[in-house]
Amino acid sequence: MGFFSNRKKKKEIRAAKIDDAFNRVYSQIEGIDNWNDPKKLEQYILDSCEQIIASTKAMERQKMEYRIVTRYLNDIKAIENLPKEKAKELRNTAARICELEDNLVNARAIQRNISDEQFEVISDEEDDMPEIINRFSSDEIYQAKLKRNLAYLEGEKSRWEIERSELQIQIKLFRKMAVAILASFMTLSILLMTMYNTAKVDISIWVFIVLFVCAVSGFVVFLRQNTISRENRVAIVHLNQAISMLNVERMKYVNVTNSVEYSKDKYYVSNSAELQYVWEQYQDKVRDQQRYIQNNEDLEFYNGKLERILGSIGLTDDKIWLNQVNALIDRQDMADCRHRLVVRRKKIRDRLEDHRKIVQEERDEIDRLMAHNEHYLPEIQEIIKSVDKLCGTGSNNKKDA
After folding, report:
1. What are all long-range contacts of 353-362, with beta carbons under 8 Å and residues at least 24 apart?
2. pTM surpassing 0.70?
3. Could you give the CA distance from residue 206 to residue 198 in angstroms, rounded to a whole number?
4. At a CB cut-off of 8 Å and minimum separation 6, what does 169 contact?
5. Is 392 left (phi over 0), alpha (psi -120 to 50) or beta?
6. pLDDT in tens, 23-69
7. Nearest CA among 274, 273, 264 for reference residue 114
8. Longest dimension (CA), the chain
9. What angle do CA 372, 388, 401 make, to 5 degrees?
10. What CA–CA distances, in Å, run from 301 to 17, 100, 295, 330?
11. In this structure, are residues 361 and 79 in contact, taking their beta carbons and an 8 Å threshold?
12. What does the pLDDT read at residue 36?
């Protein structure tokens, strides 16, 4: 490491010196106004030197990428040449990771029909939910029963009210009939007495008839009034019983209705059947969460195991295979990955060749210009020598090549 770091420091120092030389030469060339002056060629030479340096730096980057791609290809070769037992363990671990990742994706895609508010409320009473649902269902059944009872009692109350009203009308009617009978008796009695006093007519038979008719009519009215009074008392008793039972049932209905409405509002449902469905959704969601957590823990375990297996192989970069697990299982995926790397390396090699041509052409042009012109600033020679050392160009390097 010390050797490479020293070389890097020397290159940085050399590059800094070249930059200083460039600045000095440019400052002198800028003072020349005659573009036919040979000194202007020096500016072209400096531009060519800068182009050589830039191309050389690009080549260094391409070489670094070429070495990285080559290492990846070597890693693929090492994976493909693993012993059978280790290769089997690697594939099984990678297959388990793929399965767990699919499970996590599927788990995230599952949507349960339960709101966050419902989930939070039910989670606070998770242990008591079966009893709560049963009580809610019982309250609804009892509420329906009370509603039927109320309807029946309302009908009974109305029936006895109507019957009592009709009896009241009959009582009034028979009272009027009694008054009419009494008035008729008095009128006939007065008429008979008048006839007897004036005409001395025998009215005994008429008196008997009047008394008989009045007695019979009065007796009938009396019996009917007694019957109506008795029926009226019975109607009043039944009406009071209906009202009393109706009040009790109404109170029960109000209480159970409040309980049902409280459950509806608390759990955001419309009935106990919906609460049962939401409870089942809650249980499914809890199981989904537990499976998700377990899958995450298993995935972390198998990722660690895969990392240890890849580390034991001695790969250049074992981390990259954690994101390409499918290639460790499917031979076709691995072949496609190798093919992409080979194509990429060839493109890098072609770019390197293009940069080499550019550098060589620029360097040959500098030699040609310097061969035809001998008057240059002293710094030009210094810059060219430094560029040759930094970029590995020049006539000596060509002979070595």
Report:
1. 355/55, 355/56, 355/58, 355/59, 355/62, 356/59, 358/51, 358/55, 359/52, 359/55, 359/56, 359/59, 359/391, 359/393, 360/393, 362/48, 362/49, 362/51, 362/52, 362/55
2. no
3. 16
4. none
5. left
6. 544 444 444 444 345 556 666 666 777 776 777 777 788 888 888 88
7. 274
8. 190
9. 95
10. 54, 11, 10, 22
11. no
12. 46
Report the length, in residues, of the chain.
401
Residue for token pair 């008719």: 213
Tens of pLDDT, residue by residue over 191-250, are: 666 766 676 656 666 666 766 776 777 667 667 767 777 777 777 888 888 888 889 999
Stronger pLDDT, 150 or 216, i.e. the higher one: 150
Query: Measured in whole angstroms, how far is the alpha carbon of residue 78 from the centre of its chain?
Result: 44
Residue 132 CA to residue 137 CA, distance in Å, equals 9
54, 58, 59, 65: CA torsion to nearest 10: 170
164: amino acid identity, one letter: R
